[in-house]
Write a structure and sequence with these properties.
heterodimer, A: alpha/beta, Rossmann fold, formyl-coa transferase, domain 3, 14% strand, B: alpha/beta, 15% strand
Amino acid sequence: MVSDVLLAPEKQGGRGPVAGLKVLDFTHVFAGPFCTRTLADLGADIVHVESRQRDPGDRHRAAYAHRNKRSISLDLKNEAGHAVATRLAMAADVIVENFSSSVMRRLKLDYDTLSVEHPRLIYISLSGYGHTGPRNAWTSMNMNLQAYTGLMMTTGSEGDPPTSISNSWNDYMGGLHGVMAILRALSERAVSGCGRNIDLSQFECSVATLGPLLMASAVSGRPPKRAGNRSSSAAPQGVYPCTGEDEWCTLRIETGAQWRALATLIGAPELANDKRLASAVGRMRHHDELDARIGAWTRQRSKFEAEELLQRAGVPAERMRRVAEIVESPDCGEVYKPVPSDRPRPVLACSLPFTFSRSTVAAVTPSCRLGEHTEEVLHDWLGIDDAEIAALERRGGFV
Amino acid sequence: MVRVLDLTRQAGVYATRLLAEEGHEVIRIESPAGDDLRHLGPFLGGVPGIEDGAYHQFFNAGKRSLALDLTTAEGREAFERLARTAGVIVASTPLPLSEDELRALRPELVLVVITGEDRSELLAYARAGLLSITGHPGRMPVLMGGHIVYAATGAWVMVAAAAALLVQQLTGEGQTVTVDIQQCFETFLDHAVENYTAKGRTTERRGHRGAVTPISGAFPSEDGFWMLSLHDSLERWKTLMDWMQDPVLADDESLLNYDERLKHRDLILDRIGTWAQAFPKQDLVIEAQRRRIPSAPVSTSLELAEDVQLIDRRFLVQAAHPVHGKMLFPRGALATVWDQDIGFAPALGSANAELLGELGYTPEEQVLLFERSVS
């Protein structure tokens, strides 16, 4: 039966924005799981379809991918398992998948097959390059997309080798745009009564974040300059070495007063009075020289001391924090919440970086175990009773 | 579709661009001197000017521009009239009306308030831990280029706004959403935070090699860099060995074990780098893809500006810019899905006459507002 929850909404107070939304999740690392995790935070009921045969092991059962979801274990190649998946699809508002296009078609779980009897279905595919175009069959992973989207040749300074960020950057971009597309399709469905197929390209999601530079290059015929840590509008700005291994402090000078405070602090009052350096243009012109002077001062200090002295003098500065400091400092890392667990040390999971005045955001729950909610989901979504579940089990549906 | 009042700065401006991509009417309210985004380079054509900033041109595309000085009584009054017609206001600059006043004018309003944007980009990036994972090992860490991180925070703002808009549509209820930019920065560390708190494992800068997937990297080829990333499975490892025919790696049976490959990844990456230098990058990428190994060219935005995939899917469309002429214009990821056409960014104040007229200002009153530098 088609869920009509979003057509007959209760008032929002105390509920998530998409409370009651049934999402069938056929995703694996990481854009897809991040997309459905975010929907879960917004109140959706996420049922993650998995198979023990495909289980990549505990390494991937991390809270950042699987928390706040329910897991059902199905053998999609078994007739009984496949029949259950199809019934779940018919009961779902949204299906999210990130297999290559042929996989879901082969399983007869593609949009064209399902939408014949379920026109309200919203079906989103989050593939690397999209399901059309000359690159549609290309396989992709985060690092490929960091390379191809231009991110690696935009980060760093002129002449540097390609430079990456050590996270799944493109999965975040793909997942966030996936959430937006689903919310938009829900809005559309509320008016038209019809769902839709969404072919979202992770590549395009990331390229869009570099849209300004594409336009600049299209007009100039040149790649843009790589700025490193400098700013085009303020000087000096940079990352300066401190005592210890790989410890750094950042600062940025926007005003003349900040500049004089910095020069005085680093024991160079003659710089504070140097007319050549009174303006940002002048300081930009002598940036290398100033970096050397600032670096000579920071090198004598820990990043904590440098940060504190700079801030106290009125110079905007922040030390480079490592992951441990985010977790352990009381003054940052607010977005991380402890996951309920029996481990000796609390595991932290990322929540949403925003709050609603009426709607609520789901509290962080532990990562679902594979197949943990199989029976519960069959009861809730399909009204299947224990006897029928036992029959399906005998026929090998739940593997 | 609703009317959106856009008072964002850099960290939120992608959100209102995305609302325009979805077909909403987005009105960017700027000071009569033009907003900060217009002053951010690079500039199309290479010469600084308030209509030519690349960030303005991309992120304000598809919007209307209303120049209005909100610090004056007249500006405040015009804003009040406009707010009565708005479905959503997205703001990171102070509003001339309080939340309660806005709510009284327009109970169903979605008000998206952006906080925590005062800390500058590099400093926020360092504070959020992202600086510690960006760049090359043993070298100075580096901010992500192109202000990309602000597009990512804008994406979070959009998720928040879109969720509240859906609630508004379905229930008629308005609400206020508060998005914290520093927390948005922090979210992109979540994998690293969990690795640390669950497994005691730290995340380091890896430059262009093995940042997340151990056997991955940008390697020099005969004619520029290409990227390869190998899935952790044994099957993929064997595929690579079959292709490379490397005498050192192929004979080492211990490398059939994932943990051994992880331990010796630098050796493996060095061998791949040396081997690949003899081939052109396009050949390497095509052959890797033929073998189902994820691979891609390392591109600059110049190469992307004419990319075949982006053109084929109409992410890039031919358009004639009024000043800069014919170009391939990036519509955006959502606009591509919905096949939504997006106009070029508006000239400063170009919607003033139309909007002020709609709000009931006579031509004489509009002249007065202009002469008093309110509009």
